[in-house]
UniProtKB/TrEMBL annotation:
It comes from the Bacteria. PANTHER family: STRINGENT STARVATION PROTEIN B (PTHR37486:SF1). InterPro entries: SspB, SspB-like_sf. Residues 101-164 are annotated as: Disordered. GO terms for molecular function: peptidase activity. Residues 109-136 have a biased composition (Low complexity). Keywords: Hydrolase, Protease. Pfam families: SspB (PF04386). GO terms for biological process: proteolysis. This is ClpXP protease specificity-enhancing factor.
Amino acid sequence: MSEISTKPYLLRAIYEWCTDSGYTPYLAVKVDAGTTVPMEYVKKGEIVLNISFGATSGLKMDNDSIRFHARFGGVSREIYVPVNNVMAIYANENGQGMAFEPQLGQSSAPDTDAVEEAPAAPVAPVLSAVPSASADVKTEPPAPPGDDTDPPKKGGRPTLTRIK
């Protein structure tokens, strides 16, 4: 029997914590052929989705995928995100949450027709320390080569920053 991933359980737990605390849960998703999202809102192969109760309809978070309907530009769209494509779930108001390494191209449901040559080792989510927003950090990390980065914005809503 293969080991069950903890990722969908952690996603549901952080979602519940956000809603119980009055925060707005956001999902950062790596977009590939297996995701169904409005492509006009995808930037650099990623999209951030508001999954709060007020922003979604029919939200279902199971062990393989996250499904719901949401309005984009006033038009209701069906959203499908494989759990393996989720990069992070966090509270928009304070940035607290959990980040994951996306596992693109891997199906979380076993394929009975496919023949596996070697059993794959389960990949567990990795936790890493992130400096708090109140930390006085004077240095900026160098931008990755070939990454079109925009200058940082002053004020406004907090955003998720992935640290590798």
